[in-house]
Amino acid sequence: MKISVLAALLLTAAALPAAAQSGPSIQEQMACRGDASKFCAEHIGKPPQMNACLRENKSKLSDSCRKVVESRGG
User: Fold this and answer.
1) Which positions make up the signal peptide (predicted)?
2) Positive or negative: CA dihedral 7, 10, 16, 17
């Protein structure tokens, strides 16, 4: 379980759209790790597909993850 959560966290960090050359903060990563695993697990390791999946599922995301996606152009 710990490995899958850590993997999801790291892959979610890579998957979120970059805003002005900066990657997601630790807080942003933490905000979306559960949603990424729940709604977009099949896209882990595929940043473009993960980005699209998070945007497509924006209405289902937690408030904190939705704010991250929106702040990064989604």
Assistant:
1) 1-20
2) negative
Nearest 5 degrees, angle CA 5-CA 66-CA 55?
90
Sign of the CA dihedral running 45, 31, 34, 57: negative
pLDDT tens digits along 8-65: 555 555 555 444 445 568 898 789 999 999 999 999 888 788 888 999 999 999 999 9
Phi first, then psi: give them for residue 34, nearest 5 degrees. -65, -40
- Which of 16, 32, 33 is CA-nearest to residue 65? 32
